[in-house]
Amino acid sequence: MSIRVAKTGNEAVAEAMRQIRPDVVAAYPITPQTEIVQLFSGFVANGLVDTEMVTVESEHSAMSATIGAAAAGARAMTATSANGLALMWEVVYIAASMRLPIVMPVVNRALSGPINIHCDHSDTMGARDSGWIQLFSENAQEAYDNVLQAVRISEDPNVLLPTMVTMDGFIISHAMEVMEMLEDEKVRQWVGEYVPLNPLLDVENPVTMGPLDLFDWNMEHKRQQAEAMVQSKPVILQVAEEYAKLTGRRYSLFEEYKLDDAEIAIVVLGSTAGTAKVVADNLRQQGVKAGLLKIRVFRPFPAEEIANALKHLKAVAVMDRSDSFNAVSGPVFAEVRSALYGIANAPIIVDYIYGIGGRDVKPDHIESVYNDLAQIAAQGKADRLLTYLGVRE
Amino acid sequence: MAKLLEIRWHGRAGQGAKTAALVLAEAAISAGKYAQAFPEYGPERMGAPMVAYNRISDEPILIHSHVEQPSVVVVLDPTLIYAVNVKAGVPDDGIYLINTPLSPAEMRERLGLVGTDAKVYTLDATQISIDTIGRPMPNTPMMGALVKALGVISLEQLIEDTKIKLSYKLRPEVVEKNVEAIRRAYQEVAS
């Protein structure tokens, strides 16, 4: 029996961390992630977990201490947002290349400047090539479920990569919703006892971690890191399968919503997927064959699977909640369009950059995208590749 | 109950609009419904006008945008009706609950709603909170009044969830005073 509760996204993730009982959490507060660290440090202070809580002076130190703990053989976690992730940058890459199974919730927030505390995906999109697995969440339930699954994915011997679990800042992190939690004991069994592969504290079997690695072997190690990302995909699916047995909630690489018989669809990540489902439902009642594909796993990018799910459509709009400033498109569009390249009769694909700096995404905005798609499908061509949605210009 | 009930709270930062929205959502969820509660965050400072929202439904709520057309508006600070447009997006038969010593008829006139289908409720929540809690915290009594006006959550459900929520931060005797404020508001709200 799971427990039906009212939680904000931040509360849900803090509860997941309490139930996981990591050996070490090193974290620094930053809006809108602050509440996770505040609540978790409360759990430590009240003796609900025996985690070693390291209160550091910056995010660079938070990730460094987490890496040190993970290398020593601890199950280690941290959490951050936006500029905090940016300050971690150097060590974020090191966590991945040292193959440390760290799980880090990231509460999506716009990167400065101008300074802004609200949601967009510029923080984690910037880290998409850092070697971390990235799981996106639509709501508090998914953030909770993704954190619990991330531990098993990261620690799998065929993977050993760190995982970021995202949720939309304020929209999810500070919004209370209904969700289901597992009992503490079930989570304890789910994550299991952590057995590190080559811990530094195993003095009987001394190892060196993170040494100098030049042109003689560096490329082989990078190739292994790339292979680990390939190997993570079946593990993500296997863990999802086991999680479905435990909870009844089924996850995959992405969610297909009314896509089978759709003619037009949008591709989206995060909380906007929920709003878009409501719009798609309304359009369906008017006879419009609208569908949706919500990406859950952005790294590894499920290119082939997404192409298969989209190839029968007439027109597709990708929703990007960050800009690449590459004078072409946002980052998600580049990936999805690349996935569709070379497929015969592939759908016409366009990009919408939306919701920057927390700009509210109204159902009307989403409906206008579907209306554009209907027109593109009817014309057989798109007049432009990229549209900034809901901007004044 | 309507398929999706949307509520907008107007308050000044520090008056507890966010907490009220959270407690209301918890009470709705405890009663087996689906609900959301979320504040609209800005550059917050004590006393600045702010809004918080609720959505309540018998079905799962997927939408994650701001509430644009609330059928219910709650105003925690009477001066806000001159500072912000509390009627923005509200349908003609919307429900207004205002913290004020004025009667519903007087408030209807001030809001420019005479002759409309709008329902106007008033409650002197500031006075009730001073009488019971000992300081002006209108959010707690306004929850009691709102539960009466809506009729979708029971008074006892609200009291139970208020006790749980407030007991994290407040001493038991202060929690009891808040409960007393809710009970009085439930009785005294006028329409």
Task: Explain what this protein looks like in three dimensions.
The complex is a heterodimer of chains A (393) and B (191). Helix content of chain A is 41%, strand content 18%. Chain A has 393 residues and is of the alpha/beta class. In chain A, strand 6, helix 6 and strand 7 form a beta-alpha-beta unit. Chain A starts with a strand and ends in a 5-residue tail after the last strand. Chain B has a single domain, classed as Pyruvate-ferredoxin Oxidoreductase, domain 3 (3-Layer(aba) Sandwich). Chain B is 39% helix and 20% strand. In chain B, helix 4 runs antiparallel to helix 7 and helix 5 packs antiparallel against helix 6. The longest helix of chain B has 17 residues. The model of chain B has no long low-confidence stretch (mean pLDDT 93). Chains A and B meet through strand 1, strand 8 and helix 9 of A and helix 1 and strand 2 of B.
State the helical fraction of chain A: 40-55%
Order of strands across the biggest sheet of chain B?
A: 2-3-1-4-5-6
Neighbour order of strands in the largest sheet of chain A:
9-11-10-13-14-15
Mean pLDDT of chain A: 97
> Could you tell me how far the N terminus lies from the C terminus of chain B, measured between alpha carbons in angstroms?
20 Å
Order of helices and strands of chain B: EHEEEHEHEHHHH
From the N-terminal CA to the C-terminal CA of chain A, the straight-line distance is 52 Å
For CATH, the homologous superfamily of the largest domain in chain A is named as: Thiamin diphosphate (ThDP)-binding fold, Pyr/PP domains
Based on the coordinates given, report the CATH architecture of chain B: 3-Layer(aba) Sandwich
CATH superfamily of chain B: Pyruvate-ferredoxin oxidoreductase, PFOR, domain III
Q: In the CATH scheme, what's the topology name of the largest domain in chain A? A: Rossmann fold
User: With helices defined by DSSP (H or I, 4 residues minimum), what is the helix count of chain A?
Assistant: 12
